[in-house]
Design goal:
Shape: globular
Order of helices and strands: EEEHHHHHEEEEEHEEEEEHEH
Number of strands: 14
Structural class: alpha+beta
Radius of gyration: 18 Å
Strand order of the largest sheet: 8-7-9-10-11
Helix content: 25-40%
Largest sheet: 5 strands, antiparallel
CATH class of one domain: Alpha Beta
Distance between the termini: 22 Å
Length: 280
């Protein structure tokens, strides 16, 4: 059973620290608090704070955790939950589709009824997305069955990602180099990013000035239908600015470079399939 813990390594709150976040004034910036950590399986800690090398990326991730209530997701996270969730993620990675309940039962060694019960709890924790019947998986961060503007090329497979940060983190989760294909939320122009070092580094991004907007709108207990819809690529700051001025969903959030967004993606998804002593 997993309980969260908080480190004492707090953010440096020197004056002007939040200047790179257009949505927040430095005089009204939120209390970001301490770094949350959760041991999701023996020896594997979520998130991977070592992947974060930018104060901007760190601050954005802490605020994302705050708005979504990260403790609700990971406190008392049990092995049965992990068994089903990792089976879902591996199924998506192998087939670009969510595995069926019967397939999950076969892979995990659980009964179909136990799988359904576990899926219900994963949904309540916002770790999986189910259809209206509650009997079929349609998503598990970072993957979705629904069409989005974010496609990740992994070998011959085209995987659909929930959002820009999810797309950038898939390579680190799979321990493989991938190509991310997306488009500017403002103008629709293509944006392409490639990873290196088994997904842990960002090799290139075209256009080179592309940025990622990370909104902080989280409602209904489901990031897929709220937060993820506001995490998107833009050609550059000018297009981000015009979109924010014309879009209600762009009212608050955080502007990240492609490299900073990749760091957040690696921190969140790098541990998801990792086993102690085994690289992702």
């Amino acid at each position: 059973m997993v309980r969260g813990r908080y480190t004492n390594d707090r953010l440096d709150r020197k004056e002007g620290y939040m200047a790179s976040y257009p949505a927040y004034e430095t005089s009204a910036r939120p209390d970001l608090g301490a770094r949350a950590e959760f041991e999701i399986r023996p020896g594997v800690v979520f998130p991977d704070w070592q992947a974060i090398r930018s104060e901007v990326a760190e601050a954005a991730l802490l605020i994302i955790f705050r708005v979504m209530g990260i403790e609700r997701r990971w406190n008392h996270y049990r092995p049965d939950l992990d068994r089903v969730r990792t089976a879902i993620l591996r199924g998506f990675a192998e087939t670009a589709r969510a595995p069926s309940v019967s397939r999950l039962a076969t892979v995990t060694g659980m009964t179909q009824q136990d799988v359904l019960s576990t899926l219900g709890e994963l949904k309540d924790r916002d770790l999986a997305v189910l259809d209206e019947s509650g009997r079929r998986v349609t998503g598990a961060y970072p993957f979705t069955e629904h069409d989005t503007e974010h496609t990740v090329r992994h070998g011959a497979r085209a995987l659909r990602a929930m959002c820009a940060v999810d797309a950038l983190g898939i390579g680190a989760m799979l321990g493989a180099d991938v190509v991310v294909e997306s488009r500017c939320r403002a103008c629709g122009a293509p944006i392409r990013a490639e990873t290196a070092d088994y997904g842990k580094s960002l090799k290139s991004c075209n256009p080179k000035d592309a940025v990622v907007w990370v909104g902080d709108h989280y409602t209904g207990g489901c990031g897929a239908t709220s937060l993820c819809t506001t995490i998107a690529f833009f050609c550059g700051d000018a297009h981000l600015r015009s979109w924010r001025e014309s879009s209600e969903s762009g009212a608050s959030g955080h502007r990240l470079s492609a490299e900073e967004a990749h760091q957040v993606g690696c921190a969140v998804f790098g541990p998801m399939l990792r086993r102690i002593g085994v690289e992702a």
